[in-house]
Amino acid sequence: MGNSYAGQLKTTRFEEVLHNSIEASLRSNNLVPRPIFSQLYLEAEQQLSSLEAGSRGDNEEEEEEEEEGLESSSPLNPYQMHPPPEGCCTTDGFCQAGKDLRLVSISNEPIEVPSGFLLVGAKSPNLPDHLLVCAVDKRFLPDDNGHNALLGFSGNCVGCGKKGFCYFTEFSNHINLKLTTQPKKQKHLKYYLVRNAHGTLMKGPLICWRGSVELRSRQTSSSTCSSSLFQAPESSVPPAAFTSEQVLVANPNVLMGNQLTGTTSDYPLQMSAMSPAVFNGKDSPKHQQLVKNNLSVPTRPSVLGTLTNSGPPKKRHKGWSPESPSALDPCYTQTSAHRMKTDSAGVSCLPQAGLVGPATISSPVVAAGEPVSVPDNLLKICKAKPVIFKGHGNFPYLCGNLSDVIVSSLLYTCYQNSQSISRAYEQYGASTIQPISEEMQLLLTVYYLVQLASDQVPLIEDLEQILMRSWRESHLTEIRQYQQAAPQPFPQVPSHIAPVTSAQLPWLAGLAASSCNDSVHIIECSYSLAEGLSEMFKLLIEGKLVKTNYVVIICACRNTPIDSCIAVTGKYQARILSESLLSPAEYQKEVNYELMTGKVESLGAFFSTLCPEGDIDILLDKFYQENQNHISSSLNTSVNKPAALDASGTPLCTSYGLERHQIRPLQLAVAQKLLSHVCSIADSSTQNLDLGSFEKVDFLICVPPSEVTYQQTLFHLWHSGVLLELGLEKEHVTKQRVEQYVVKLDAEAQTKFKVFLQNSLQNPHTLFVLIHDHAHWDLVSAVHNLYPQTEPAVGLVDRLLNCREVKEAPNIVTLHVTSFPYALQTQHTLISPYNEIHWPASYSNGMDLYQENKKYFGLSEFIESTLSGHSLPLLRYDSSFEAMVMALGKRFPRLHSAVIRTFVLVQHYSAAMMAVSGLSQMKNYTSVETLEITQNLINSSKQCACGHGLMVVLRIPCIPLAAVAYERLYHVRERLALEDHFEIILGNPNSTITIGKHFVEQLKVWQKIEDAEWRPQTYLELEGLPCILIFSGMDPHGESLPRSLRYCDLRLINSSCLMRTTLEQELGLAAYFVSSEVPMEKVTVGEVLESDPEKLSSTDNEDEEIVTEGSVSEKRSPVKRERSCSHDSASSSLSSKTSSLAFCNESSPPLVSLGERARSPHPPLNSVMEEGAASCEKQRQRVSEGTQTTISRHCPGPGEQDMCLNPKPNLRSVQVSVTSSSSPYSSSSSSSAPTSNAFILQSSQCPMTKGLKQPPVVFLPKLVYDMVTSTDSSGLPKASSLLPYHSVMWASSFRPLLSKMMTCTEQSLYYRQWTVPKPSHMDYNNRNEGRMDNFHPRRLLLSGPPQIGKTGAYLQFLSILSRMLIRLTEVDVYDEEEININLREESGGHYPQHNDVWPDLEIFKKMPFDYIIHDPKYDDASMICSRNQKIKSDDKPAIRKHEDLYVRRQTTRMRLSKYAAYNTYHHCEQCHQYLGFNPRYQLYESTLHAFAFSYSMLGEEIQLHFIIPKSKEHHFVFSQPGGQLESMRLPLVTDKNQEFIKSPTFTPTTGRHEHGLFNLYHAMDGASHLHVLVVKEYEMAIYKKYWPNHIMLVLPSIFNSAGVGAAHFLIKELSYHNLELERNRQEELGIKPQDIWPFIVISDDSCVMWNMVDIDSGGERRSDYTWSERNVSLKHILQHIEAAPNVTHYALIGMRKWSSKTRSGEVQEPFSRCHIHDFIILNVDLTQNVQYNQNRFTCDDVDFNLRVHSAGLLLCRFNRFSVMKKQIAVGGHRSFHIKSKVSDNLVSIAPSQYICAPDSKHTFLAAPAQLLLEKFLQYHSHRFFPLSLKNYGHPVLSVDCYLNLGPQVAVCYVSSRPHSLNISCSDLLFSGLLLYLCDSFVVASFLKKFHFLKGATLCVICQDRNSLRQTVVRLELEDEWQFRLRDEFQTANAKEDRPLFFLTGRHI
Q: How far apart are CA 1318 and CA 1021, in angstroms?
């Protein structure tokens, strides 16, 4: 591409550079000269000045500035308006009589309109947002058919009623237009005005001034432009102004220079919206683009922001304008004709009877110039319609034979866009950055055209990138300056630059085009473009431009801006470009017209002349008569035999099997990602989804109106079992029931949808999922589709899925599912980028985690197969087919190429079927590729004993052409008696599948179906059926194809109108899964690596051909010319002399076809090399040279066919068929007599087996192939940079390319930034200033490659979503029976009064304390001995494994009650305020308060921190002034408020910020309560984030690694300190200290529900009672306990742990004096002197219970209350991990390693010493107390503490405190003594009271070794215990971690 460098023209070296360049060009062999203009500029560092002051590219004003740019180059005098009469009204919008004329003011007023007059809207430059209502004689307006209006004017004022204005100047003065330019009716009368159904006058269609005539021979829009350039004003055109595919007009004056052709439409006014897009002058859309590099369609509009339109019509335009833009052209450009089927509805395709000649509008102020006459017979002579692209300046009028030429504004738009690029830098104040000059634009364009090959078509994206790159390089310095820093107020003024002058331009352009063999021809005009156009037409008629593809016409005068245009005259390029301007609807109508009018008969007649033996039909009839009997008998044998064998029960083929619904790991992963996104919506603070309020899931799946897709979705749904799993259906689901959940988006869809909406309203507790499958299909705005009665499906998605009911329903989640999400990723999308779920890419990290047994083959894999190193590519094109199409295109220029391509391909298939059937001469009339497909299809069923065959998909988008192809192929098949070999199926999206009865029976046998009425309804059910599926319909609708698909023939897809979505969905048909268990075969047969770049290889001929690998160097660069192809339409792809042995009979091996490698063109195969021996020798030579060679599995020997090509470039490629005389298959005759079937038996392989291993082969049109396989500068296929969809457009030309490294998420963000929807898009009106407000909160998008399994993924998502909702309403709670029930205290242990609701204090005091632990979580803890136990060794269970401790605990699933505690995932309206969602308080409104108190045991002051939300400050007392926290308010014992809980609740927690059950709102039944979370310092932030409205008590940092004992210790000490503070504070208020409430609640963070037992003692005896358990609120329980008499006399109050196994005896006794766990009510006053052990990690509650009891305090358990504890798998005790201190290796360390000898080299552990001690003693205490093992009668004496020594060791707890309660130990012999951190209360005399067994062991534990020795001495332990030096141990801690030290000894 040409480069443009900023700099100054080297005028001093100009001649030298010029001379050298010309000389170099003449001497060079290179096809493209070095661009002279890239040498004529200095270095890029120099800054630019203004390039051209007169540049028109950046004009912003719609009216005046563009007007001036398009007028004659001579300056005009400003228009002098007559002064208004004195005293008249001069207000804008009012007439001079003072009457209001504004449409908004008088729209509902009755207006008298004289006969023959129409109401029109006039635009005033001073009131841009208003229309002024005028009455105008319709004779002076364009008529209904767009014909010229009469000159002059006649109008009335509707305000004051004044009539008879004969001059528009006079009239404009009267209505106060106040113009500064000469008044013209064409400029200011803009719209017809119409009344709507309510009688309101409103803006109607544009008045189509000087509308263009139809330049084709029919009234078919050459383009209903499909790319919206402008952001249309909301009120620009009313709905009546356009049809379903049109868009709003952005700029009303765009059509003023255009005249409309006649039309047969019933909507004459609306027809202006759809006239052919041929544009004149600058009155044209600005968003059209060229096509380059093998893409035939302009597909990527590019515009910077919103550009203005170019101005009003010019008065010099005297003839018929050659344009016919629609009224909507500014919004709908020609970039992509691929649109909905309804596009251009109403446009007639009938030819025009005649064309109107030039009009006679005179115009005095216009440049001179006669209209250019288009010669007669231009199309006939040139064989193509030239396409003229307007460039710069003024374009002349055309007259004469206008049907033979097409005019477009694509190039003009591109130029305008590139001149607007610099606006992107206006924000930097970059006033010095000028757009690229017009001269440079044209030079770069010429240089670009020069580089195009003869088979390439210009692409506007490429030119756009060239222009932008040139501009950027020119201004690199300035751009960097403005990007890197803020602009200076006065930027540096660059030095003067001399740009390319208009005088130099023609010469430089000619120089650039001088060496391209006249491919680009330059015509220079001195006066106007009219001269150049006339010259061009003359040269065309004279045949002097035969080799010319592009004619560049330049009119460059020194004093005026340049005028230019480019005409495409190459037959190939002109045809492609002209057809690309048709929309899909117009394309179908054109084809229909050609079929109905018989235009195609000439094509059929031509085909008849090709065959030397006469018409093909005659040959077919002759063949049918001669071979009918013989063939039918042989067919019966070959076809029926497998069925008979199969019926006998012999398993002949194991490859067959329909895949039922199976969930692959990736599908499950995607379903879980979907679920995660739904949960994230629910978890967000926006409260858009309350998952906790839903009990079940319902759904509706919306699919496109394709019967096969509909049945396919039903099939998947039926077999998935989702309906049963969701509980929507019972057993034996019928198909009719399944159909209720899938809706086909057709005319009948609304009924089902209404039922869905009604259900959603009636079931607010059901979550409805609305699944929109194939979501890219119909994105037309419902507002835009004005005629739903004609195409009811268009806009249906918008009407249904975007209706207000769906958007506002809180219980509907919408899931869009598509393979091509680009059109849903625009600037106005409804879907948040955070709600997009992308299928994991095959190359992404972590893919190995998914154990997939199949490999997905999609577009990227197909493209990869075309690269070097692969075998035969799976992506190919057929060059001989393309050559024949091109030749016929020249012969039949008036036929659409789709018709030609279809007829050629059908002819090829017909000839191939005849050739395979024995008419070997017909092989010359087909191509290698088609022959390969056909013979593999026909022979495939013979390779399988069951008759399984392969499928060929023949894609014919146009339904009429598909019907023609079907009829023809069906006829040929019948004539050839092949009707039992394979089926031909016409796949129409609107109909079901129809196949013959014979094949239905075969399918039923294969699939073991017994239903007599069964018929296949999906393509998947055609598994194994040999068939040609003619796949019709403009777009695939998500139909899946079976694994037996072998060939996907896409040669007939509409290659002239491609977008990314269009292209990828066509290629998506071939997407495929291959088994990854076996390596995919690189080739089907032999692989010969070809090293000679000049050699061509054959295409893949299924299993029986030898193939070679072509060199990668065959891939052409864009400049390289291909080898010449034959232009002879009759040239054969196969040699006529090739041996016909492959066609002699059906049992012989298929022909070894030799053609060209798929990436290179087929030369004509008209000569044959007969040297078979040489061929085989070369094959052997290649093998011997070590080149990779794979011999076919089915190759019988060296006599098998091979191929050889002469490397000389001038020798044509040939096919060699070598037959050995010894080969049993050789035959010289053409008879169809069957020969030996040995080959087939030997090579027998079911096609299904192959299908599992290898994806299908895809044939593409050459244009599409080049587009897919070539890459742009980003490394992506060129197709990726196409416009993504027809209803979106680029937001700016100034955009980067997509990058190869982009993830799906990054691509989404790219499209969200750079694309905007057109007015026809349903998201068009979704525009808000606050972007985040645009997104619908309950809308998700799932995207993944086609056919990868998205349906299975979203069905699985429904399943796991349902399971999750059920789980949200359920919880796993521990359900374990109490332990040690048989060891209860026997005497006096029962509370006698069973009906008491509160304990009687006196009775309770007399009850003994039950030392035995009954909580099942302590099943592996040491048993505590008391006096009366009778313990046997078998009473205790075996010790559990360490890892089983928490895994094996029994749980049961319970449904949450309305009184449950919740975690952070619960959101409901009732508790929003509780959680902090209160408008009065912001989430961050909380304050941090320090609270310090001293504690002597710690030896220092404790400083805690409270985080108190503003909403909870009323619970605290603050100092005034200062606001320092003083205390936490406590109520009085006498308070009786029923809506208040007196006891503050403390919940210590760690690691459970998400899962902890801290939401007590429902548990407390809404009662006011004080709840404090006790957290560690390092977790403060995360807890505060999740629980912003909760009070936090933050422990000091020294406790970050502490256990739960530290939290309990600090809670209790803080509470007591606070009690003292409150007593002091309230004592000042006259309240007694004992009246302050002394209780607190310490609750675990897993308490989920609370229950109460109701006892019915109705019987006479005490034992006669019944009981039931019910769920109650925590409020009820706490208030009941708080109301107990004498409650302050109890130290600890608790309740049972719930169990479903609770025995009646346990609840019969209402109160127990025993251990209390999990949920305790603690009297901090009574327990003032009893502390928790702050060092403990486990069993601290048991230890504390024993301390409390030994202090003589009461522990009371309410047995008729119980607490349920939820199983939480994270946090809590699991948050402590014991690992090595020296390495990060997470290898688990055995508990035996937790202690070591002091001063040893043992590995130190990173864990608290206390935790290591407790864990070691739990699992290995028998090392210290060997006599205690299972010796329960002789427990270990534990002084002042309870440590868990494991379940096989019993302990006896004694307290050393004076006056403590201890059991009597006088008769006990202890097996050990445990002294743990004993204090001064433990003395020698105390220990001497106890007696020990001989050999009993002692363990003393102290903080350090010194304390250890002091303790031994102080307690005189050496008197009775023997110590050894080696019996000293320590925990495995480093010194800095303060290990604990042990000393063990034996009793003497």
A: 40
Alpha carbon separation from 992 to 421, 748, 995, 1001, 1671 (Å, rounded):
52, 17, 10, 18, 57
1154: CB partners within 8 A, 6+ apart: 928, 1098, 1165, 1203, 1213, 1214, 1215, 1216
- 1647: nearest Cα among 1552, 1733, 1734: 1552
The widest CA-to-CA distance across the chain, in whole angstroms, is: 137
More confidently predicted of 376 and 418? 376
H-assigned helices in 255-387: 378-382
Give the separation between CA 479 and CA 898, rounded to whole angstroms: 47
Record the tokens describing residue 521, joined without a space: 């021809």
pLDDT of residue 1368: 80
State the angle between helix axes of 616-647 and 897-916 in degrees (0 to 180), rounded to the nearest 10. Answer: 60
Which residues partner with 837 through β-bridges? 1342
User: 1526: which 2 tokens?
Assistant: 């003083």
Q: Would the pLDDT of 70 be above 80? A: no
**Cα separations in angstroms, 409 against 228, 284, 333, 1040:** 14, 6, 9, 41
Distance (Å, rounded) from C-alpha 1041 to C-alpha 504?
A: 60
Of 8, 69, 79, the closest CA to residue 40 belongs to: 8
Higher pLDDT: 272 or 511? It is 511
Q: Would you state the structure tokens that stand for residue 542, as one six-digit string? A: 């004279």
Q: What are the DSSP calls for 103-125, one per residue?
A: HHHHTTS-----TTEEEEEEEET
Q: Is the dihedral of CA 1872, 1875, 1881, 1883 positive or negative?
A: positive
Residues 1185 and 1233: beta-carbon distance below 8 Å: no
**Burial annotation 722-738 (CB, 10 A radius, 16+ → b, else e):** bbebbebbeeeeeeeeb
Intra-chain end-to-end CA distance of the chain, in Å: 103
Alpha carbon distance 1196, 1211 (integer Å): 30
Residue 1895 Ramachandran class (φ > 0 left, ψ -120 to 50 alpha, else beta): left
Alpha helices in 475-596 (DSSP H): 476-484, 504-512, 529-541, 571-580, 584-596
pLDDT at 1889: 92
- Of 865, 855, 857, 1347, the C-alpha closest to 1100 is 865
Pairing state between β 1755-1765 and 1486-1495: unpaired
Give dist(CA 1170, CA 541) in Å, integer.
Answer: 47
Tokens for 1269, please give them. Answer: 């396989």
Q: pLDDT > 90: what percent of the chain?
A: 42
DSSP assignment of 1092-1141, as one string?
-TT-------TTS-EEEEPPGGGSPPSSSPPPP----TT--SS-TTS--H
Find the radius of gyration of the CA atoms of the chain: 45
Which amino acid belongs to residue 1419? D
1027-1032 vs 875-877, strand pairing mode: unpaired
In this prediction, residues 1802-1812 reach a mean pLDDT of 92
Place 1099 in a pLDDT band, splitting at 50, 70 and 90. Answer: very low
Pairing outcome for strands 1921-1931 and 1941-1947: antiparallel
Give pTM, 2 decimals: 0.62
User: In this structure, what token pair is assigned to residue 604?
Assistant: 């059929």
Residue range 495-552, pLDDT digits in tens: 344 577 888 888 889 888 988 888 999 999 988 899 999 999 999 999 999 999 999 9
Pick from 1835, 1847, 1543: nearest CA to 1677: 1543
Q: What pLDDT band is residue 1348 in, cutting at 50, 70 and 90?
A: very high
| Closest C-alpha among 246, 249, 252 to residue 121 | 252
Beta strand pairing call for 1647-1656 and 1755-1765: antiparallel
